Amino acid sequence: MTFRARHLLGIEPLHPTEITELLDTADRYAELNRQGRAPRDVLAGLTQINMFFENSTRTQASFEIAGKRLGADVMNMAMQASSVKKGETLIDTALTLNAMRPDLLVVRHPNSGAVDLLAQKVNCAVLNAGDGRHEHPTQALLDGLTIRRAKGRLHRLSIAICGDIAHSRVARSNIMLLGKMENRIRLIAPPTLMPSGVAEFGVELFDDMEEGLRDVDVVMMLRLQKERMDGGFIPSEREYFHRYGLDAAKLSHARPAAIVMHPGPMNRGVEIDGTIADDINRSVIQEQVEMGVAVRMAAMDLLARNARMGRDETGVMA
After folding, report:
1. Where in this chain does the entry annotate a coiled-coil region (predicted)?
2. Is residue 17 annotated as involved in ligand binding?
3. Does 108 appear as a known binding residue?
């Protein structure tokens, strides 16, 4: 097994062979899920705690379904009503949870680096479900799996990531993952939503959709992160859609077989035209949701295997 990580905190530390093994495992789970044959004993006897300090629908539900399909005992903590709201620090919360001896901890937090800090304080596997503007590794992995299944490969493709690059942890994780897998990456955004220094990641930058989408294989739209904006980043939603929203006219500049992606939730008529989002011949947005469960099953399976190997070798948790 080439995937030897103890935690899944980000894409940055992963080697391409580890990414490939995780995607191969997820691919098998995707097929088993479709057949209704998910192995319910993989995480049997293990406890999974989901801690979401930010609201989430898709990611939290996906992790919960993934854990239950593999037989884990899954607990969702209502962080909005937790002791954190009463003044308890993240570290104290981590120590309290650690004393309960969970096996898998899934964390989403509004502050960049918070999940990494928590991972340093617990003895179980930690999975980053999104931390601030830092990373969202399982989203990038499910995007990678969706692309690979649609295109037959995940290398040497031309991929455009469009929209709110500046505030998007999804964009950051995808830039790293797709770059590691030798793809050509284009970022398309208004100057106010293009982060400084991003060109150092080896990407091409565009502020014009038609030019940026020319001959690409994949069009990945991003949600406007309004909750992270504290100023006038766009003149209006109507003007944003006119210039940067994906419609048929703009999509016509991509390759005829180009696929359309969006991590959700979508703002129809702002980031993407509803007709494009629902086009079964171009849109793989529903497949992204499906692959999310498979990827999270694979990640928890591989991390649990590593933890078992660590215990077998030392007699205690690695």
Report:
1. none
2. no
3. yes
Whether residues 43 and 162 share a domain: the answer is no
> Are residues 160 and 270 part of one domain?
yes
Asked if the structure places residue 1 within a domain, the reply is no
93 annotated to bind ligand: no
**Do 143 and 116 fall into the same domain?**
no
Percent of the chain with pLDDT over 70: 93
119: Cα within 13 Å, side-chain hemisphere:
22
Give the span between the Cα atoms of 310 and 313, in whole angstroms: 5
Shared-domain flag, residues 159 and 251? yes
Q: Is 265 annotated as a binding residue?
A: yes
87 is in an annotated binding site: no
Is the pLDDT confidence value at 318 over 50?
no
Q: Examine the domain organization and report whether 132 and 173 are in the same domain.
A: no
Minimum mean pLDDT range among 229-243, 251-265, 299-313: 229-243
Q: What is the pTM of this model?
A: 0.94
* Residue 245 in marked binding region: no
Handedness of CA 292, 295, 298, 299 (dihedral sign): negative
What is the residue-averaged pLDDT of the chain?
92
**Quick check: 284 pLDDT over 90?**
yes
Q: Is the peptide bond prior to 102 cis by the omega test (within 30 degrees of 0)?
A: no
By residue range, what is the domain housing residue 38? 7-136+289-302
CA distance 209 to 200: 21
The C-alpha angle 124, 126, 128, rounded to 5 degrees, equals: 175
User: Is residue 2 a part of any domain in this protein?
Assistant: no
Q: Please tell me whether 59 is known to bind a ligand.
A: yes
If pLDDT is split at 50, 70 and 90, which confidence band does 83 have? low
Q: Is position 86 annotated in a ligand binding site?
A: yes
pLDDT value, residue 317: 46
Which tens digits make up the pLDDT trace of 12-31? 999 999 999 999 999 999 99
264 is in an annotated binding site: yes
172 part of a folded domain:
yes
Residue 315 within a domain: no
Q: How confident is the model at residue 88 (pLDDT cuts 50, 70, 90)?
A: confident
Distance in angstroms (rounded) separating the CA atoms of residues 254 and 159: 10
